[in-house]
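idk why but the lab printer keeps eating my pages so im just putting this in chat instead. protein + magnesium ion:
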Amino acid sequence: MKRISILPPEIAGKIAAGEVITRPASVVKELVENSLDAGARTISVEVVDGGCRRLRVTDDGCGMWPEEAPLSLLRHATSKLRQDDDLLRLATMGFRGEALPSIAAIARLELCTRSPDREVGCRLVVEGGVIRDQTPWAGPAGTQVTVSDLFYNTPARRKFLRSQAAEQAHILELLRHLALGYPEVHFLVQAQGKTILQAPAQKDARERLAAVLGVEWAEAMLPLDLAMPGLWVRGLASPPDQHLASPRYQFLLVNRRIVSDRLLAGALRQAYQGLLPKGRQPVVLLEVEIAPDQVDVNVHPAKAEVRFKDSGRVFAAVLAAVRQALEPAQRPGRQEFTGTWVAGPALPVQEARPAALFSDLPPLPGGIDLLPQTPPQPVPPPQVAAGEAGPAWRFAELPILGQLQDTYILAQAPEGLLIIDQHAAHERVLFEQFARTADQPAPRQALLFPVTVDLAPNPAAWVEAHLPTLQEAGLELEPFGGNTFLVRAVPACLAQHDGATLVPGLIAELAPLAGEAEEPDQVRRRLHLTLACRGAIKAGQPLRPQEMQHLLSQLDELAISSHCPHGRPLWRLLTFSDIRQNFRRPR
Ligand code: ADP
Ligand code: MG
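predcted complex ->
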């Protein structure tokens, strides 16, 4: 065992740098945040070899005086914080005074800076954390930091770098985030001399989203806006019929700081629950603005996480904001519904992809050009066959042709053969009925002879905790000692399935594995999803014509008539023109 000794400063510096600077993108993040703190209107980023070889960030911000520039390289030297309670009301991205010294410890750094109120600024060359050269500099006002040979003196860290293309993709992703958070700033990003992101100053988030992700997304997004005292949630959220395989395009900003916050991500997940197919993800730009003393940003080395004082309130606000935004999408007018219908059901399930940007792989070797090549084109409305743009299709009015495999209802629509998945359709109907009547006790069937069910300890504790919520949904359970419960009534939708026997399975499906605490709202929503699924007509169940007719007329009442709560389509249309083509008939 060796004896304790204090590390020499250059080693300590390298270790501290490792917490903040893990890859080229983290250098870019720190430098661009400094530029934003300096009030820059234009920020340009140049990347060579994924940033491993060279990175340069140039801004037109406030710059530094020659006498203060060397200070910026000292640890804990900052212009943004004077006393400790400033930490409680941070309005800047930086505050620790660590970034520049950390970068200087593990790369060669050149800093050129001039304040607009001085004719001459200075140029510093730093190597291994030590200033090697200082000369006057009379370039444009602002600051230019060039970082070369990142990790040249920390080979262990260098080994963890991924390919240059992957590092560049990280940088681009980061800059997309930052660009979305600061639409009023002009961002220009070049890699190997080629422009990969160009976002001129824009007036709002939607315009910026068009520059960053493409016009198709920007136009489809629904606005979020919910304000309450000391808290403002705003941004854009994709409608339920547009989604992606990855959550990469959920941009979360708290007081304009990029975060990867589990609470916010959880609120988004809950807001979209039941609206997206399994495993699919919405595109969201979520900006939370909150009183600075209500959030702690000093909990993570790279400031990627934040801690809210009242996380329940933030969660509820985000959930409500997104739900509100999705509401109109959930309740299309007849007109819109007609459009979707005639356009063919390929629309809702197909994922809309903006130009090349949305490959789920990291973009590019060598850098693809992300500039929209053509001026923004409005998304064309769904095509409506001439003469058939009638005002309203009502499912109830379509002639029913029969049932296929006791699973699909066949009906004749004006455009072709309509195939309806009876289970998915009924499931949606039940789910919406629950949602619509959530504030009233659900219809139930009392059991003539109450039966007992024995549960495992975990589910039993969960049932005990949520008896009133279960009761509201029509599932009346009464503690009967130990882990046993008496079933007194079951939701009406389960009655035809011999509901009581379903109860243990239902509880097993609903109770979380670990005994984590849940809000009644969460429980209610899952309960509705599960009851709708269990209570719905099954595939393989023969239906009488009146039953089919009844189901179709219920579809007319639906807010979302295209997908079941798990995101599967309810119906498909085989158009007459497809049918004609299949039989090689002339048009
Ligand atoms: P922090 O951002 O936490 O203050 P940094 O090490 O990132 O710490 O920067 C140290 C100081 O250098 C900043 O507080 C700021 O005064 C100055 N500085 C850094 N980058 C710039 C820039 N682009 N423009 C003007 N001043 C800058
Ligand atoms: Mg900083």
